[in-house]
Amino acid sequence: MFCxxxxxxxxGLIASFESSHNNLxxxxxxxxxxxxxxxxxxxxxxxxxxxLIVHNSxxxxxxxxxxxxxxxxxxxxxxxxxxxxTHPDELEKTITPLLSQVDTIFTLRDNxxxxxxxxxxxxxxxxxxxxxxxxxxxxxxxxxxxxxxNEKITGVQSAEKALLILENEKExxxxxxxxxxxxxxxxxxxxxxxxxxxxxLFPSDKRS
Length: 208
Known about the structure:
- By secondary structure, the chain is α/β, with parallel strands linked by helices.
- The chain has two domains: 2-29 and 152-174, no CATH class; 35-150 and 183-197, 3-Layer(aba) Sandwich (Rossmann fold), CATH 3.40.50.2300.
- Helix content is 29%, strand content 19%.
- The longest helix is centred in the last third of the chain and has 16 residues, at 151-166.
- It starts with a strand and ends in a 20-residue tail after the last strand.
Protein backbone atom coordinates (compact mmCIF):
# COMPACT_ATOMS: atom_id res chain seq x y z
CA MET A 1 0.00 0.00 0.00
CA PHE A 2 1.15 3.52 -0.76
CA CYS A 3 -0.51 6.81 0.00
CA UNK A 4 -0.11 10.35 -1.28
CA UNK A 5 2.42 9.66 -4.04
CA UNK A 6 2.13 12.04 -7.02
CA UNK A 7 2.04 10.42 -10.50
CA UNK A 8 2.94 6.85 -9.43
CA UNK A 9 2.59 5.68 -13.04
CA UNK A 10 5.16 8.18 -14.30
CA UNK A 11 7.50 7.17 -11.48
CA GLY A 12 7.37 3.55 -12.69
CA LEU A 13 5.75 2.25 -9.52
CA ILE A 14 2.65 0.98 -11.34
CA ALA A 15 1.75 0.03 -14.89
CA SER A 16 -1.49 2.05 -14.86
CA PHE A 17 -4.15 3.37 -12.51
CA GLU A 18 -6.45 0.48 -13.53
CA SER A 19 -3.93 -2.15 -12.39
CA SER A 20 -0.42 -1.91 -11.03
CA HIS A 21 0.47 -5.33 -12.51
CA ASN A 22 2.55 -5.89 -9.38
CA ASN A 23 2.05 -6.13 -5.64
CA LEU A 24 1.23 -2.43 -5.16
CA UNK A 25 -1.98 -0.45 -4.83
CA UNK A 26 -2.92 2.72 -3.03
CA UNK A 27 -3.86 6.37 -3.25
CA UNK A 28 -2.13 8.80 -5.59
CA UNK A 29 -2.03 12.42 -4.55
CA UNK A 30 -4.24 14.94 -6.32
CA UNK A 31 -2.66 17.25 -8.85
CA UNK A 32 -3.00 20.88 -7.91
CA UNK A 33 -2.26 23.99 -9.91
CA UNK A 34 -2.26 26.14 -6.74
CA UNK A 35 -4.38 28.60 -8.73
CA UNK A 36 -7.31 28.30 -6.25
CA UNK A 37 -4.89 28.90 -3.35
CA UNK A 38 -3.57 32.08 -4.97
CA UNK A 39 -7.09 33.23 -5.80
CA UNK A 40 -8.22 32.78 -2.18
CA UNK A 41 -5.12 34.57 -0.88
CA UNK A 42 -5.72 37.60 -3.10
CA UNK A 43 -9.43 37.72 -2.26
CA UNK A 44 -8.68 37.73 1.45
CA UNK A 45 -5.61 39.96 1.19
CA UNK A 46 -5.88 41.95 -2.08
CA UNK A 47 -2.93 44.20 -1.19
CA UNK A 48 -0.48 41.26 -1.28
CA UNK A 49 2.70 42.43 -3.03
CA UNK A 50 5.65 40.31 -1.88
CA UNK A 51 5.37 36.57 -1.30
CA LEU A 52 7.98 34.21 0.12
CA ILE A 53 7.61 30.50 -0.77
CA VAL A 54 9.22 28.33 1.90
CA HIS A 55 9.96 24.76 0.87
CA ASN A 56 12.19 21.70 1.25
CA SER A 57 14.84 21.85 -1.48
CA UNK A 58 15.50 18.08 -1.47
CA UNK A 59 12.18 17.04 -3.06
CA UNK A 60 12.08 17.36 -6.88
CA UNK A 61 8.26 17.35 -6.97
CA UNK A 62 8.22 20.33 -4.61
CA UNK A 63 10.60 22.18 -6.92
CA UNK A 64 8.13 21.61 -9.77
CA UNK A 65 5.28 22.95 -7.64
CA UNK A 66 7.30 26.04 -6.74
CA UNK A 67 7.86 26.72 -10.43
CA UNK A 68 4.13 26.29 -11.02
CA UNK A 69 3.27 28.76 -8.26
CA UNK A 70 5.69 31.29 -9.73
CA UNK A 71 3.99 30.88 -13.11
CA UNK A 72 0.53 31.39 -11.60
CA UNK A 73 1.64 34.54 -9.78
CA UNK A 74 2.82 36.01 -13.11
CA UNK A 75 -0.83 36.93 -13.74
CA UNK A 76 -0.75 39.35 -10.80
CA UNK A 77 1.37 42.28 -9.67
CA UNK A 78 3.11 40.19 -7.01
CA UNK A 79 6.85 39.60 -6.53
CA UNK A 80 7.74 36.06 -5.44
CA UNK A 81 10.89 34.87 -3.68
CA UNK A 82 12.00 31.42 -2.50
CA UNK A 83 13.46 30.23 0.80
CA UNK A 84 14.87 26.71 0.72
CA UNK A 85 15.45 24.51 3.74
CA THR A 86 16.27 20.84 4.34
CA HIS A 87 15.28 20.60 8.04
CA PRO A 88 12.74 22.37 10.29
CA ASP A 89 15.57 23.69 12.49
CA GLU A 90 16.74 25.83 9.55
CA LEU A 91 13.51 27.81 9.28
CA GLU A 92 14.21 30.71 11.62
CA LYS A 93 17.79 31.28 10.44
CA THR A 94 16.82 31.09 6.76
CA ILE A 95 13.67 33.19 6.87
CA THR A 96 14.53 35.94 9.38
CA PRO A 97 16.77 37.96 7.00
CA LEU A 98 13.96 37.98 4.40
CA LEU A 99 11.07 39.07 6.63
CA SER A 100 11.51 42.78 5.95
CA GLN A 101 11.11 42.12 2.20
CA VAL A 102 7.80 40.21 2.21
CA ASP A 103 4.21 40.57 3.40
CA THR A 104 3.12 36.93 2.95
CA ILE A 105 4.69 33.50 3.49
CA PHE A 106 3.26 30.79 1.24
CA THR A 107 3.91 27.12 1.99
CA LEU A 108 3.32 23.85 0.16
CA ARG A 109 2.24 20.39 1.28
CA ASP A 110 5.73 19.86 2.63
CA ASN A 111 6.35 17.70 5.70
CA UNK A 112 9.63 19.45 6.53
CA UNK A 113 7.97 22.88 6.62
CA UNK A 114 4.83 21.60 8.35
CA UNK A 115 7.02 20.19 11.12
CA UNK A 116 8.20 23.75 11.79
CA UNK A 117 4.76 25.38 11.65
CA UNK A 118 5.06 26.78 15.19
CA UNK A 119 8.26 28.60 14.25
CA UNK A 120 6.59 30.04 11.15
CA UNK A 121 3.55 31.19 13.15
CA UNK A 122 5.77 32.91 15.72
CA UNK A 123 7.79 34.72 13.05
CA UNK A 124 4.66 35.81 11.18
CA UNK A 125 2.86 36.98 14.32
CA UNK A 126 5.87 39.03 15.45
CA UNK A 127 6.39 40.65 12.05
CA UNK A 128 2.84 41.21 10.77
CA UNK A 129 3.30 38.73 7.92
CA UNK A 130 0.45 36.57 6.62
CA UNK A 131 1.04 32.81 6.76
CA UNK A 132 -0.91 31.02 4.01
CA UNK A 133 -0.81 27.21 4.07
CA UNK A 134 -2.26 24.61 1.66
CA UNK A 135 -3.86 22.63 4.46
CA UNK A 136 -6.89 24.07 6.21
CA UNK A 137 -5.87 22.46 9.50
CA UNK A 138 -2.68 24.60 9.61
CA UNK A 139 -4.99 27.44 10.65
CA UNK A 140 -5.56 25.51 13.88
CA UNK A 141 -1.82 25.79 14.53
CA UNK A 142 -1.89 29.55 13.99
CA UNK A 143 -1.60 30.18 10.26
CA UNK A 144 -3.83 33.13 9.39
CA UNK A 145 -5.20 31.30 6.33
CA UNK A 146 -5.36 27.65 5.35
CA UNK A 147 -6.89 26.20 2.21
CA UNK A 148 -6.74 22.54 1.31
CA UNK A 149 -8.19 19.07 1.41
CA ASN A 150 -9.43 17.06 4.35
CA GLU A 151 -6.57 14.54 4.63
CA LYS A 152 -8.70 12.27 6.80
CA ILE A 153 -10.50 11.22 3.61
CA THR A 154 -7.21 9.94 2.17
CA GLY A 155 -6.63 7.82 5.27
CA VAL A 156 -10.13 6.36 5.21
CA GLN A 157 -9.99 5.47 1.53
CA SER A 158 -6.51 3.93 1.94
CA ALA A 159 -7.79 1.82 4.83
CA GLU A 160 -10.67 0.58 2.69
CA LYS A 161 -8.18 -0.69 0.11
CA ALA A 162 -6.13 -2.38 2.81
CA LEU A 163 -9.24 -4.19 4.07
CA LEU A 164 -9.88 -5.55 0.58
CA ILE A 165 -6.46 -7.21 0.77
CA LEU A 166 -6.58 -8.34 4.39
CA GLU A 167 -10.20 -9.43 4.68
CA ASN A 168 -11.35 -10.10 1.10
CA GLU A 169 -8.01 -11.63 0.07
CA LYS A 170 -7.78 -9.53 -3.08
CA GLU A 171 -4.44 -9.13 -4.82
CA UNK A 172 -3.12 -5.54 -4.87
CA UNK A 173 -3.04 -5.65 -8.67
CA UNK A 174 -6.81 -6.25 -8.65
CA UNK A 175 -7.47 -2.98 -6.79
CA UNK A 176 -7.34 0.18 -8.95
CA UNK A 177 -5.18 3.08 -7.84
CA UNK A 178 -7.33 6.13 -7.18
CA UNK A 179 -7.01 9.74 -6.06
CA UNK A 180 -8.88 10.96 -2.96
CA UNK A 181 -12.41 12.29 -3.30
CA UNK A 182 -11.51 15.46 -1.44
CA UNK A 183 -13.61 18.31 -0.16
CA UNK A 184 -11.50 21.47 -0.06
CA UNK A 185 -11.94 23.89 2.81
CA UNK A 186 -10.90 27.48 3.50
CA UNK A 187 -10.10 28.38 7.10
CA UNK A 188 -9.20 31.74 8.63
CA UNK A 189 -7.79 31.96 12.14
CA UNK A 190 -9.60 34.82 13.89
CA UNK A 191 -7.04 34.79 16.71
CA UNK A 192 -3.95 35.39 14.55
CA UNK A 193 -5.32 37.04 11.40
CA UNK A 194 -4.91 40.61 12.65
CA UNK A 195 -1.40 39.91 13.96
CA UNK A 196 -0.57 38.56 10.50
CA UNK A 197 -1.94 41.51 8.56
CA UNK A 198 -5.28 40.06 7.43
CA UNK A 199 -8.23 42.46 7.61
CA UNK A 200 -11.17 40.29 6.62
CA LEU A 201 -14.82 40.92 7.34
CA PHE A 202 -16.74 37.70 8.00
CA PRO A 203 -20.41 37.59 6.93
CA SER A 204 -21.45 37.32 10.58
CA ASP A 205 -19.50 40.51 11.32
CA LYS A 206 -21.32 42.63 8.73
CA ARG A 207 -23.80 45.22 9.89
CA SER A 208 -26.74 46.41 7.76
